[in-house]
UniProtKB/TrEMBL annotation:
Residue ranges of coiled coil: none
Name this protein carries in UniProt: ribonuclease H
Region span, Disordered: 1-21
Swiss-Prot/TrEMBL keywords: Endonuclease, Hydrolase, Metal-binding, Nuclease
Cited InterPro entries: RNase_H, RNaseH-like_sf, RNaseH_domain, RNaseH_sf
One example of a Gene Ontology biological process annotation: DNA replication, removal of RNA primer
CDD domains, sorted: RNase_HI_eukaryote_like (cd09280)
GO terms for MF: metal ion binding; nucleic acid binding; RNA-DNA hybrid ribonuclease activity
EC number: 3.1.26.4
Top-level division of the source organism's lineage: Eukaryota
Family stated for the protein in its record: Belongs to the RNase H family.
Sequence ranges assigned to domain RNase H type-1 in this UniProt record: 35-179
Length: 251
C-alpha cells in the first residue's frame, strides 16, 4: 500500500474536506433561508499592508436586489481585516430597511461576536478570553443596532476560499474598496482627496429603500443620499480609472 501522507498534508486535506462539506451544506441552507423570507446579505473585508504607509482596508456589501457597496474603512479607524469585516456588517445593518436578513460572512470574529459573544465581552468591560477586545466603538454601535426591533437577523458562517457566489462578489467589492482608500499609495496625492473621498454612485435596479450615509475622510465628510424610489449602487473606481484621472498610463 502507498505510504500515508505526511501529518501536515493530511491535516490540510481534512480542512479542505470540512470546507467542502460546509459549502455543500450552504448550498441547501441559503435557498431555505430565502424561502423562509430572509434576504441574504454578504459582507466582506479586505486589508493590505502597504510599505511605508501601514495597513489599508476596505469593505464590501452585497445583496442581490438591495445593496452593492464598495468603500474604504474610514481612515480614523484601525485598518485591520477584522475592523473591515465588522464595519461592513455595521454599515449594512444601518442602511437596510426593516426586514428579515441572513448575514453571511467568512469572518469567525464577526460571526462569534455578533451572535452573542460581544454582549458577554461588554459585560466583562470589553475583555475577552485573550485580553482586551478591539474595535469597541464599532461593537457598541453594532449592539445598539441589533437591539432595534425592526430587523430580524440570522448569522451564517461562510467558509473562506470556497466558491459561494454572493460571498465572492462581496470579496471583490471589498478589494475595490481597499483600493479606493485615500491611504492607498495610488491615491496618495492631496489633489485627489476631494475627488475620491466617497464611492461613486450609479442606479441600482429593484432597490426598495431610502437612507442617508456619511462617509468620513479625515477632515473631509461628504454626504450621499439614497434617492427614492430608486436607491443607488455604491461602486468603486478601479486602479486604472484612478491612473487615467491623474493622466498616468494605465496598468
Amino acid at each position: 500500500p502507498p505510504p500515508p501522507p505526511p501529518p501536515a498534508a493530511a491535516k490540510a486535506q481534512r480542512r479542505l474536506e470540512r470546507k467542502q462539506e460546509r459549502a455543500s451544506e450552504l448550498e441547501q441552507l441559503l435557498p431555505t433561508l430565502s424561502n423562509e423570507g430572509y434576504t441574504l446579505v454578504f459582507t466582506d473585508g479586505s486589508s493590505e499592508l502597504v510599505p511605508g504607509i501601514g495597513r489599508v482596508a476596505g469593505y464590501g456589501i452585497f445583496s442581490s436586489d438591495l445593496l452593492s457597496i464598495s468603500a474604504y474603512v474610514p481612515v480614523h479607524l484601525r485598518q485591520t481585516n477584522n475592523t473591515a469585516e465588522l464595519f461592513a456588517v455595521l454599515r449594512a445593518i444601518q442602511l437596510l430597511p426593516p426586514g428579515r436578513y441572513a448575514f453571511c460572512s467568512d469572518s469567525s470574529y464577526v460571526i462569534l461576536g455578533a451572535s452573542g459573544a460581544a454582549r458577554r465581552w461588554k459585560l466583562r468591560g470589553w475583555t475577552g478570553s485573550s485580553g482586551p477586545v478591539s474595535n469597541v466603538e464599532i461593537w457598541e454601535q453594532l449592539l445598539s443596532e441589533l437591539s432595534q426591533p425592526d430587523k430580524t437577523i440570522k448569522w451564517v458562517k461562510v467558509p473562506s476560499h470556497v466558491t459561494v457566489e454572493g460571498n465572492n462578489e462581496a470579496d471583490r467589492l471589498a478589494d475595490l474598496g481597499r483600493l479606493s482608500s485615500p491611504l492607498h499609495p495610488i491615491l496618495h496625492t492631496p489633489s485627489t482627496f476631494s475627488d475620491f473621498s466617497a464611492p461613486l454612485v450609479t442606479p441600482l435596479k429593484k432597490a426598495r429603500f431610502a437612507a442617508t450615509s456619511t462617509h468620513d475622510l479625515s477632515e473631509v465628510s461628504r454626504q450621499i443620499t439614497f434617492q427614492s424610489p430608486a436607491a443607488v449602487r455604491f461602486s468603486s473606481v478601479t486602479a486604472n480609472d484612478i491612473l487615467r484621472s491623474l493622466d498616468l498610463e494605465p496598468l
